[in-house]
Amino acid sequence: MSTRDALGLSESRDLDLVKIAPSAVPPVCKIMDYGKFLFERKKKSKEARRNQHISELKEIRLSVNIGEGDMRTKAGHVKEFIEDGNKVKIYIRFKGREGQHPEIGRKVMSDFCGLCSEFASVEGSMAFENRQMSVILSKK
Fold first, then answer.
1. Other CB atoms closer than 10 Å to residue 135's CB: what's the count?
2. How many domains, in total, are found in the chain?
3. Residues 46-88: pLDDT tens digits?
4. Rounded to 5 degrees, what are φ and ψ at 14?
5. Helix axes 102-115, 68-83, angle to 10 degrees
6. Do the bridges between strand 120-129 and strand 57-62 make them parallel or antiparallel, or are there none, so unpaired?
7. What percent of the chain has pLDDT over 70?
8. Whole-number Å distance between alpha carbons of 48 and 54
9. Type and span of the H or E element at 120
10. Domain that includes residue 79, residue range
């Protein structure tokens, strides 16, 4: 259809003539309400942004002499964080002479990771730096 005929047709319907593929030979056009098209495109992008979830890094602190009940409670918190789509950093801060026995911290950390192994997997390995041991858990 010629450009003149297409313009006449779009004006008779009170719509706009919009180029869909301007680089094609001949250019491809469509008769539509351009304002409505822009509104719907903006609405779709808003909906996509609203449904998007940005993952955060949550932190849980353990101690070298944590009890079994406290460990289970903190494992429950980790489960909630991971179900929400977040990653969790578990760390143990060594105070005073605790730093001279990192094997105790490793045992506590491995026991805790064992509790969380049903719903989380360890990302990387245990890092020990500046009197602190840490590990990151993510969704299995």
1. 19
2. 2
3. 998 888 777 789 999 999 999 999 999 999 999 999 998 899 9
4. 55, 45
5. 50
6. unpaired
7. 100
8. 12
9. strand 120-129
10. 57-139
